[in-house]
Specification:
This protein is an alpha+beta fold and 302 residues long. It is 17% helix and 40% strand. It has two domains: 108 residues, Immunoglobulin-like (Sandwich); 180 residues, C8orf32 fold, CATH 3.10.620.30. The strands form three sheets. Strands 1, 2, 3, 4, 5, 13 and 14 form a seven-stranded antiparallel sheet that branches. The longest helix is centred in the middle third of the chain and has 15 residues.
Length: 302
């Protein structure tokens, strides 16, 4: 499946909930196991949960992402989920390859084909979804990058760069419930907002685009050690080019995704691949703390 690996990483994702009152029942859906696909192989994966539960099941969701369903019946004031993963990444298409993709404005019929109706088929990712509404405003914002006859992936890279220039990263500006229209007005947000914005633009043009959840390796200042918990859960986008396949872009960091992005899963938007989501009985107010550590490692011994 994967070509010659070029990078290996260990990921630690630590999620900690503290509740105001005791929780008597908790049911959780976890998307915390990196998936394997053409450019990534999950070599090892383990999840620790406190309080311990013997009632859990692992399966794949509709889009093929690995999940774990957990039920906790022990009374608890805190919930801690620690996920440990080791992944190998291989080379993705380079910027030079983007200029050889087909023109964006001749792809519509190809994207609607249902003769290969897999869960990764592009037609699943052409339409509105819970967090992404399509609009004339989104289409107009993207249109300058998509001149008639321009190569799809070259135009998509231009849109990536435009969002990076026009929008400011601000973790206080939005919540996951903030609509795209408000993100457009405020020109501020976080990676989920910018991913949703870019997907909305591309789908408003009739193009297939999916939301990707994962991790990003951050680089410490020169001479400084890597800090535990300093990396981040991240989100970016993947656009479908019929002549190449799915190609990933990161509007938050203005780049074509290469070898520092680790994929957990993908879906129509954030709601399909939330790392941890569930319902609890009791608990009252809750406080959430998340720490992510991505560590480059040497290739495993043969």
């Amino acid at each position: 499946m994967i070509g010659t690996p070029i990078k290996y990483y260990r990921v630690e994702h630590d999620t900690h909930y503290r509740y105001q009152y005791k929780v008597s029942l908790s049911q959780q859906l976890l998307h915390l196991a990196p998936r394997s696909f053409d450019y990534q192989t999950c070599l090892a994966q383990h999840i620790d949960i406190q309080p311990v539960s013997a009632d859990w099941v692992e399966r794949s969701d509709y889009f093929g992402n690995p999940t774990r369903h957990v039920t906790l019946t022990t009374m608890h004031n805190t919930l801690t989920v620690k996920a440990y993963s080791t992944v190998a990444l291989s080379a993705r298409p380079t910027i030079q390859a983007l200029r050889h993709s087909a023109p964006w404005d001749v792809l519509h019929d190809a994207l609607l084909r249902t003769d290969l109706a897999t869960t990764s088929a592009p037609f699943h990712f052409l339409y509105e979804s819970p967090h992404i509404s399509l609009s004339a405003a989104l289409r107009a914002y993207a249109q300058p990058c998509f001149s008639p006859g321009r190569a799809l992936l070259e135009a998509t890279l231009a849109l990536t760069e435009q969002i990076y220039r026009d929008f400011e990263f601000d973790p206080t500006a939005t919540t996951i419930a903030t609509p795209l229209s408000e993100v457009m007005r405020g020109r501020r947000g976080v990676c989920q907002d910018f991913a949703h914005l870019m997907i909305g633009c591309l789908r408003s043009l009739g193009l297939a685009c999916r939301y990707v959840s994962g991790y990003l390796l951050t680089t410490p200042p020169p001479g400084q050690p890597r800090l535990i918990g300093a990396d981040a859960s991240h989100a970016w986008v993947s656009v479908f080019a019929p002549d190449i396949g799915w190609v990933d872009f990161d509007p938050t960091n203005c780049c074509l995704v290469q070898d520092e992005h680790i994929t957990l899963g993908w879906g129509r938007d954030f709601s399909d691949v939330t790392p941890l989501r569930g319902v609890v009985l009791g608990g009252g107010e809750q406080k959430l703390e998340v720490k992510v550590t991505v560590t480059p490692i040497a290739p495993p011994a043969a």
